[in-house]
From TrEMBL:
The protein's name in its UniProt record: Formamidopyrimidine-DNA glycosylase
Self-association and partners: Monomer.
Formamidopyrimidine-DNA glycosylase catalytic domain segment(s): 2-116
Function of the molecule: Involved in base excision repair of DNA damaged by oxidation or by mutagenic agents. Acts as DNA glycosylase that recognizes and removes damaged bases. Has a preference for oxidized purines, such as 7,8-dihydro-8-oxoguanine (8-oxoG). Has AP (apurinic/apyrimidinic) lyase activity and introduces nicks in the DNA strand. Cleaves the DNA backbone by beta-delta elimination to generate a single-strand break at the site of the removed base with both 3'- and 5'-phosphates.
Gene name of the record: mutM
DNA sequence: AAGAATGTTACATG
DNA sequence: ACATGTAACATTCT
């Protein structure tokens, strides 16, 4: 579900819901594996009483900065989802963590597939140490992208999915970026021309910014699809050019969008716009 | 009703 | 050290 634009949308939504300044007055853990490294009891003991000082994003992590120098880093993985609850509904079976707040509201963590993780840390630096640059940061230039790709002989798609190369892209936005840059997903990174790297850089930022502007991508209508914490679906699905559009016409050239497997992920492309370079 | 699903990591092999 | 491939996590959706 969540890639950079979705996680950014979640963080903005949590901030807009005025969670900063609230104190956590209680914790319920219904699926202990969600809490990394700590027992639910240890987690509860360390979190209850803390005040939320700030909520930020790094790559696909949501960073809850608490008082006493603690940070709760949450990774949503595939189906993790926060929901701010202001009434007295009862939690459904996929709500695995509940945080009670001092203003009477609750925060639910839904996660159908149970891959999401909460890391409660004194210092998040080790967790974040291996992440590559933020693609939307002001200082992420085409030159920095070129540096990140320098000397790499791997195919470009698996490299862009690798969070230590660039942080925040996932399967949707990589396919959309490569289509926009007219680059074949199997193209070896070291064969990209400077012009292609500039195109890739521009495409990546345009595609991600559009995703953020549209409040993320919600695919289909199931429970497991992305929703921001106050319940909204993202509006970006309409803007996707190739992702899950197999067999439909390429919006740029009219060719047929194809699906192939790359790096064990389903990959969508237009072969006419994204020719595979001959690599040796 | 089999296969795929927005993510990551550990492990094996080349 | 680099690269690639597979399995695993757990459940739902098409």
């Amino acid at each position: 579900m969540p890639e950079l634009p979705e996680v950014e949308t979640v963080v903005r939504d949590l901030c807009a819901a005025r969670l900063v300044g609230r104190r956590i007055t209680g914790v319920r853990v219904r699926w202990p594996a969600t809490i990394a490294d700590l027992s639910p009891e240890q987690f509860k003991r360390r979190v209850v009483g803390r005040t939320i000082r700030a909520i930020r994003r790094r790559a696909k992590f949501i960073l809850w900065e608490l008082d006493q120098g603690r940070v709760l880093a949450v990774h949503l993985r595939m189906t993790g989802r926060f929901e701010v609850i202001a009434d007295n509904r009862t939690a459904g079976k996929h709500v695995h963590v509940v945080l009670l707040l001092d203003d009477g509201r609750r925060l639910w963590f839904h996660d159908t597939r149970k891959f999401g993780r909460f890391y409660l840390l004194q210092d998040p630096a080790p967790l974040l140490a291996r992440l590559g640059p933020e693609p939307l940061a002001n200082d992420f230039t085409a030159r920095r992208l070129a540096e990140a790709l320098a000397g790499r002989r791997r195919a470009i798609k698996p490299l862009l999915l690798d969070q230590s190369v660039v942080a925040g892209l996932g399967n949707i936005y990589v396919d959309e970026t490569l289509w926009a840059a007219r680059i074949h997903p199997l193209c070896a990174a070291h064969t990209l021309s400077p012009a292609q790297i500039r195109a890739l850089h521009r495409a990546m930022r345009r595609v991600l910014r559009q995703g953020v502007r549209n409040g993320g991508t919600t695919l289909g209508s199931g429970q497991t699809n992305f929703h921001s914490p106050v319940g909204g679906a993202g509006r970006n699905a309409d803007q996707l050019k190739v992702f899950r559009r197999t067999g439909r016409p390429c919006p740029r050239c009219g060719g047929t969008i194809e699906r192939m497997q790359v790096a064990q992920r389903s990959t969508h492309l237009c072969r006419r716009c994204q020719p595979q370079e001959i690599t040796r």
